[in-house]
Amino acid sequence: MSIGFIGLGNLGQAICKRLSDIGENLLVYNRNKEKIKNLPYEKVETPNELFKKCDVVFICLFDSNGVSEILNKFTSDDLKGKTIIDLTTNHYEDVLKFHEDVNSKGGNYLENPVFGSVAPALKGELTVVSSGKKETFEAVKPILEKIAKEIFYLPIPSSATKMKLINNLCLGSFMATIAECTAMAESCEIPKEKALEILGVGGGQSLVLKAKTQKIIDEDFSAHFSNNAINKDLHLLQNLAYELKKPLYSAAIPKELFSKMKMLGKGEEDFSSIYQLFKN
Where's the active site on this chain (predicted)? Predict the structure, then answer.
């Protein structure tokens, strides 16, 4: 039986290509049908049609609003016995509603945010963190192993989403620091290629630097993970800290820097384009 997939943005397309490359049959739905018209997958006109034909469905959307819009289309008759693997980085409160809604209709909801972007997705080397019923996680783990190198399970609903937001504090902070270091080196007449090479064996060693070095060198800011996405995630993390009555010192500046990129009309660019703020 085909695997269903809803949401073919940059990450969704990369995951679909990975699944297709290893022999999985896909049935896909995207709200913007023009965007996927040339992709080599069987397409459906509505999410309902997809759920009728697939027992396991991935959802990979920008935010909770998109997921809610999809899930609100379904009744118990539609979801009974179906498993939803939600790769979206949701709001940590909204995701609790998704667990309740799907499970109460006889379906199985697995909260499964993705760590990593296009390049590791194409290689099946993502990291995923899952929350939900243990039996649901165990049942779909063989599918997750097709797209992810590292898989973690946190049983309490919303834990995976909160962990994703925490991880993205590291991601956003590293990216902003690497960008500023690169621009500072250039101001000292050190070529950015050499500066990034040195940072890569010095204090800048990180997955972020490895993933974004060439993008900064080439100033190719086509999106793998957008400024809009990191800005949204850091905003949600600040909401979480407020709810927990905890200060969140190191998130404030990166969040505002990515807000500045969004304000400048660069929200759809890759988040490595923050380099432009410091360069200019």
Answer: 164
| Backbone region of residue 127 per phi and psi (left: phi > 0; alpha: psi in -120 to 50; beta: other values) | beta
For the chain (280 residues), the mean pLDDT of every run of 10, in chain order, is 94 97 97 93 95 97 96 92 97 98 97 95 97 98 98 98 98 97 98 98 95 97 96 97 96 97 98 96
How far are the Cα atoms of 102, 112, 123 from residue 128, in angstroms, in the given order? 21, 6, 14
Of 254, 250, 247, the C-alpha closest to 274 is 254
The b-or-e profile of 204-243 (16+ CB within 10 A means b, else e) is: bebebbebbbebbeeeebebbbbbbbbbbbbbbbbebbee
Asked whether the beta carbons of 51 and 4 are under 8 A apart, the reply is yes
pTM: 0.95
Three-class secondary structure of residue 115 per DSSP: strand
Look at residues 194, 178, 196, 201 and name the one whose alpha carbon lies nearest to residue 273.
178
Query: Which residues are designated catalytic?
Result: 164
Domain ranges of the chain: 3-155, 161-279
Contacts of 277 (CB under 8 A, 6+ apart): 179, 257, 260, 261
Full DSSP string of 167-220:
HHHHHHHHHHHHHHHHHHHHHTT--HHHHHHHHHHTTT-SHHHHHHHHHHHHT-
CATH 3.40.50.720 fits 3-155, yes or no: yes
Q: Output the six-digit token pair for 173.
A: 């902070």
Give the tokens for residue 192.
């950015």
The DSSP bridge partners found for residue 131 are 111
